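Input sequence (65 aa), recorded before submission:
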Amino acid sequence: MVGKGLIVVGIAMEAANIYNAYQEEGEFGEKTQEAVGEGVVGGLLGGVIGGIAGSSIGGAIADLF
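Predicted structure, token format:
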């Protein structure tokens, strides 16, 4: 349940970051594109690293039993 809540918080924070960059520039300019790119890259890397770590830990635990 906590994980789902954190996903919502993360999405809201990224949306706010993109919106603030857009408001600062007044258009979909370089800073806005950078904010969008950072959110996508950060989310992708976090998902991949989290998946690898979770499967490694789960595999280690399964080997114990």
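Checked by second reader. The two ends are 27 Å apart (CA to CA).
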